[in-house]
């Protein structure tokens, strides 16, 4: 049995919980939009074609903000194609995912869907094939009340009131050689600066995200952020981060420790932002939008039923199956640790989007004409989005180690916690990374009075299963949350035992001492 002692002190906090940390992402990719959130003709579809069964799961998952419409897709997208009478919308080739885009779903449909799902919209503009003009036109179309060409076109298209979209991404992954219209840091930095200015001339209230590196392994990581911000620091509010992780060669121990990499990646971007801030004598603070993160089995891209875009050349299809990863228990525990990393950095990471929402590397799966269900990774996201409120607590953690090939010794128990003073609750988010040993946990509560356990749940290997157990169409509830038994308060400390390979959430009711 490994052991961990966590000390909570009500005076040691990191930040208000940034509620936008629990964001998601809908890209026109594979079956995220078509047969994911939108499937006219499905028995569960409403009159607009929104799948009610998927919407219900989205509401249960609880994302606060959803990025749209891409992703790589946005770098070749003409937003005007997706507005106006559906029968007049053009069919286009989407080069990013080698797909035929019908444009049956566009901005108005997304705005309506987002209202139903009760999420904020994070809209990305195309800075791959397009520039300043089309971006400022889109802001005018979306946010200007009326009396001008673009705002009146929106009204003509059925939306009298502005959409009032606050959050905008200045393109996507433009450092990547795979990106349509990729750029050097110099080219992008200047374009981002000028586009941001022009968009803000239309609506000064918007918030803007500059594109950071596509991942930490990019050869230009660091210098890209530095150059881009050297141009655009004053014009933007956030710089983006993207990261995907997977298990390599059966090395589950290293995979379970990937949040160590995520922590270091975030710290590196913070250091770069602050270096530009200091050198430029800027006073305002640029923060981070971690607007793509997840587990993604990228090495499994090329399969027969989900051919990779390149090998699929010649077979242009509508909404093909693309990267529909099936997630298991191990993946869910890793996702729990990523959410902990984001919370621990809540002072600087203000937005984060798990990529994506439905079917495409997603917590929710759906079949065309068939059912929708929750993947294993649904559970940590749903509980953290629901329960992380108030302030993020700065924890002192003293844990037994687990040894890993990639990261050396790491804490067996990974944790984050939030304190909702108004409601008198503490939420503890815990992961046991050890594959073999249970974790004997003690949580000291300093400065907090009598506590009781309101709820305690755990996700772990199901009976008769193994660490690869997953929810699939014919067995949709194999992996989920079950009660975590025997969580006690002993002399002002919480005592619990976490099963090997598990993610747990414990909610305490506390009073100020
Ligand atoms: O989320 C899938 C893809 O991953 C996105 O389109 C792109 O931005 C990233 O490379």
UniProtKB/TrEMBL annotation:
Leading EC class: hydrolase
Pfam families: Alpha-L-AF_C, ASD1_dom
Protein transport keyword on record: no
Reaction equations catalysed: Hydrolysis of terminal non-reducing alpha-L-arabinofuranoside residues in alpha-L-arabinosides
Annotated InterPro entries: Alpha-L-AF_C, ASD1_cat, GH, Glyco_hydro_b
Origin: domain of life: Bacteria
UniProt domain Alpha-L-arabinofuranosidase C-terminal: residue ranges: 291-502
One Gene Ontology biological process: polysaccharide catabolic process
Molecular function GO labels: alpha-L-arabinofuranosidase activity
EC numbers on record: 3.2.1.55
Keyword flag Hydrolase: yes
Keywords carried by this UniProt record: Carbohydrate metabolism, Glycosidase, Hydrolase
Subunit text: Homohexamer; trimer of dimers.
The family this protein is said to belong to: Belongs to the glycosyl hydrolase 51 family.
Full protein name: non-reducing end alpha-L-arabinofuranosidase
């Amino acid at each position: 049995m490994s052991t961990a002692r966590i000390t909570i002190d009500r005076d040691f906090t990191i930040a208000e919980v940034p509620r936008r940390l629990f964001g998601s992402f809908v890209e026109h990719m594979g079956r995220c939009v078509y047969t994911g959130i939108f499937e006219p003709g499905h028995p569960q579809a409403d009159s607009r074609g929104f799948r009610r069964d998927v919407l219900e799961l989205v509401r249960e998952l609880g994302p606060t903000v959803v990025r749209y419409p891409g992703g790589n897709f946005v770098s070749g997208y003409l937003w005007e194609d997706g507005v106006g009478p559906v029968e007049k919308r053009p069919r286009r080739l989407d080069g990013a995912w080698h797909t035929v885009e019908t444009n049956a779903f566009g901005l108005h449909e997304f705005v309506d869907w987002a209202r139903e799902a009760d999420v904020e919209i994070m809209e990305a503009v195309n800075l791959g094939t397009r520039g300043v003009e089309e971006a400022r036109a889109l802001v005018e179309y979306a946010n200007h009340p009326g009396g001008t060409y673009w705002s009146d076109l929106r009204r003509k298209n059925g939306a009298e009131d502005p959409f009032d979209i606050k959050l905008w991404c200045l393109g996507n992954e433009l450092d990547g050689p795979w990106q349509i219209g990729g750029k050097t840091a110099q080219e992008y930095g200047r374009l981002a600066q000028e586009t941001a200015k022009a968009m803000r001339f239309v609506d000064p209230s918007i918030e803007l995200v500059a594109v950071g590196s596509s991942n930490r392994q990019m050869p230009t990581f660091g210098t890209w952020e530095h150059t881009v911000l050297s141009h655009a620091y004053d014009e933007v509010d956030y710089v983006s981060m993207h990261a995907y992780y997977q298990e390599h060669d059966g090395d589950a121990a290293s995979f379970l420790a990937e949040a160590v990499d995520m922590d270091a990646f975030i710290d590196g971007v913070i250091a770069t932002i602050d270096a530009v801030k200091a050198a430029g004598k800027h006073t305002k603070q640029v923060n981070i939008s971690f607007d793509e993160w997840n587990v993604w089995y990228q090495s499994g891209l090329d399969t027969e039923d989900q051919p990779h875009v390149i090998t699929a050349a010649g077979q242009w299809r509508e909404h093909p199956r693309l990267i529909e990863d099936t997630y298991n228990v191990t993946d869910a525990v890793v996702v729990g640790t990523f959410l902990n990393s984001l919370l621990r950095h809540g002072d600087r990471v203000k937005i984060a989007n798990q990529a994506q929402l439905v079917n495409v590397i997603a917590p929710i799966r759906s079949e065309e004409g068939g059912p929708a269900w929750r993947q294993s990774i649904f559970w940590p996201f749903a509980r953290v989005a629901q329960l992380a409120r108030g302030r993020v607590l700065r924890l002192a953690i003293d844990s037994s180690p687990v040894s890993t090939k990639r990261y050396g010794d790491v804490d067996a128990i990974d944790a984050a916690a939030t304190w909702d003073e108004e409601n008198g609750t503490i939420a503890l988010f815990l992961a046991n990374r050890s594959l073999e040993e249970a974790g004997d946990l003690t949580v000291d509560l300093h400065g907090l009075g009598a506590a009781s356990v309101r709820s305690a749940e755990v996700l772990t290997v199901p009976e008769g299963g193994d660490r690869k157990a997953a929810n699939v169409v014919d067995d949709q509830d194999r992996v989920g949350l079950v009660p975590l038994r025997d969580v006690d308060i002993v002399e002002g400390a919480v005592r619990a035992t976490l099963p090997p390979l598990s993610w747990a959430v414990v909610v305490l009711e506390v009073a100020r001492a």
